[in-house]
Amino acid sequence: MPKIEVPPAARAPRIFELRTYESPSMKANKRKVKMFDDDGEIAIFRKCGMLPIFFGETMVGRNLPNLTYMLAFEDLAARDQAWRKFAPTPSG
Description:
Blueprint: E1 15-22, H1 26-37, H2 41-47, E2 51-57, E3 66-73, H3 76-86
Antiparallel strand pairs: 1-3, 2-3
């Protein structure tokens, strides 16, 4: 994602989920980045009810290569529902 996206103002507390995808190789990492950048995975997240905050490649640290991203949800039930909806999608 070229910039951080601030989720719309919420009327109630929300859930933020920070996730890390650890790639087994640079080739697999490039494929995953392509899924986010070119193949529409972020659009699929939105369609499933997830609010993307940021997606980024880790530059330094352990367990490289990897990607870190954050999603927001209205509540825990909305999070669970969104991941269930995402699971059967072609990129999921």
